[in-house]
Amino acid sequence: xxxxxxxxxxxxxxxxxxxxxxxxxxxxxxxxxxxxxxxxxxxxxxxxxxxxxxxxxxxxxxxxxxxxxxxxxxxxxxxxxxxxxxxxxxxxxxxxxxxxxxxxxxxxxxxxxxxxxxxxxxxxxxxxxxxxxxxxxxxxxxx
Length: 143
Description:
The protein is mostly helical. Helix content is 63%, strand content 3%. Strands 1-2 form a two-stranded antiparallel sheet. The longest helix is centred in the C-terminal third of the chain and has 30 residues, at 97-126.
């Protein structure tokens, strides 16, 4: 694995937390920081479209409020209805080329949306927020 060396200036509070973690875990300062960064950034598949990849890479830089907004949003209702109608039609007959293209495009949008939303939830959970109270309910942010 190729590695890069960087120099970074940290606030004292962050430096102290990393140093304390290193001491408690008997790991080096560098190892703690490397592990932190490894887990903070999303693992992305190589075949993600560039726009989806860019959106996911930006998420860790969002504030908690922005992540909660993403976590709570819903997929466009009209698009969801269109997916359901086309999927139901597909059960009974072959779709036209245009219908199949539209279904594929809408399914791609829905999958990208869910991936984006799931990554926002993962980041919130990683930051210590209880994200789910049940499989379908998202908690409100901590006060």
